[in-house]
Amino acid sequence: MKLRMKKLRENAVLPERKTSGSAGYDLCACLGSEFTIEPGDLVIIPTGLAVELEEGYSAMIFTRSGLGIKHGIHVSNGVGVIDSDYRGEIHVGLTNASKTPYKIVPGARIAQILLMRVFTPEFEEIEALSETERGNGGFVITGN
User: Fold this and answer.
1) Sheet of strand 57-62, all strands in order from the earlier edge strand to the far edge
2) DSSP labels for 24-48?
3) Which of 54, 91, 105, 142 has its CA 20 to 30 A from that of 128?
């Protein structure tokens, strides 16, 4: 399978996997100059890329582990979802959950993108659900 991507700006960087076992591809900031995310800020960073996904797939944008753990920089909406019919520029919403400003330079790896199969079943409203041993007990409390 090939993923079709279009560079919308000359300095855009196509995503790449850093190792053969990497699940995600690094997304890079497409900026003209350095940008600082102050503590508590919510920002939108352009990637300069657009994607053409096959129907039945979506692209998910996740926080890079190192940015989240070491610097408190997270994808601001938890996980970004790119639908198969979206053809606009991919942007990454980031937040700085730390107490320290964080500088992003042009081309910096800011998030990771993963492709996922999407299942779109029809919903059926029913009067009762089947019984299980657990039942409705233990939301968050399933034992020790």
Assistant:
1) 25-28, 109-117, 57-62, 80-82
2) SEEEE---SS-EEE-TT-EEEEE-S
3) 142
